[in-house]
Amino acid sequence: MNIELTDDGLDQVDQITALFFGYVSLLQQQGLSESLYQEESQLAELQFQFRDQPQAIHEVMMLAQMQQRYPVENLLNANYLLESFEAELIDTYLRQLHPDNLLLTLQHDQVTPEFTEKRYNAGYRFAPIDEQRLTLWRESALIAICICASLICLFPIHWR
Q: What does the pLDDT profile of the chain (160 residues) look like in tens digits?
């Protein structure tokens, strides 16, 4: 999952994380509709068609790595391809999304690196997520379920 934050959002990482897990819990309870999946598939196709063109060296490196995971005919669009709705498989992945197995990465100029990755010369650091934050995310996720469910009731989504 990739969530891009504004500068204000950077100050709300815990609340945004809790809302994310609340929404995941809501999806676990209500299930995912095939119509939503089809809409996401169409959006992904549009994102592929109108994506920014990467620098050639980055494109070559990505394609070289992807050759080991995807068929040749899907190398260019593999990251945008949603072929079939598989409710059981989606549910399997949803059940694995919870605060206790989260790897949270935060990229911003304000993050002070401890190490530098040699190949890309990129700074990074590792820090365990403390129990207080995990507890906050677990408990807030339950509240977020109620908020998400309320918002859906107040602003129902009509699928075409």
A: 888 888 888 888 888 888 888 888 888 888 888 998 999 999 999 999 999 988 999 999 999 999 999 999 998 999 899 989 999 999 999 999 989 999 888 888 887 889 988 998 888 888 899 999 998 888 876 676 666 656 555 444 443 3
Q: CA-to-CA distance for 127 and 3, rounded, in angstroms?
A: 20
Domains of the chain with bracketed CATH: 21-154 (3.30.830.10)
Q: For residue 21, give both structure tokens.
A: 């897990």
Q: Is the Cα torsion angle 78, 81, 86, 87 positive or negative in sign?
A: positive
C-alpha distances (whole Å) from 158 to each of 28, 30, 49, 118, 152 are 20, 16, 26, 49, 11
Q: What pTM does this model have?
A: 0.70
Give the position of tokens 């699928």.
159
Q: Give the angle subtended at the CA of 42 by the CAs of 41 and 47, to the nearest 5°.
A: 95
